[in-house]
């Protein structure tokens, strides 16, 4: 029922489908004296969507062993395709948050959430292809970290515009929900507006923007 209600809300709305690519450059972390990370991974997520980087070793600095960084010598690129809806009253695109989550990956592969921050992709939407250098200040979710920040370049491309109810403006989850009503209870947990892509399909806020 929730999926049907969502589609009814989109009648007469316009929509724009964007492709966003995050190129990760560096993760800065300040730990507490009693704990240090093993390997760090960034998860870019919204609801059940997760785009995950390969775990990378964390290196403490020589000056302060509680502070260190993960440096991506070759920036790791992760891509999501996002549908943004336009408010018919203001003609402005509506907000849509995707969250960056910093996770520690243990030697056994267990993941532990360390910090997170939401990024409103509407603020980075552009009719012309554009990229921005972004610094995301991550909020620690427990007592293991004192601070964490993520440095990346965010590239956005407008793929197409149309009515919110057009089939090519809907995600794969939306199309499945139309063709398989018996799965509505499961699909309600999905974000019908988005689907994700990755360089490897088996892997799935203070902001400083510098348009280039």
From TrEMBL:
InterPro entries linked to this entry: F-actin_Monoox_Mical, NT-C2
C2 NT-type domain span: 8-158
The organism's place on the tree of life at top rank: Eukaryota
Protein name: EH domain-binding protein 1
Organism of derivation: Papilio machaon
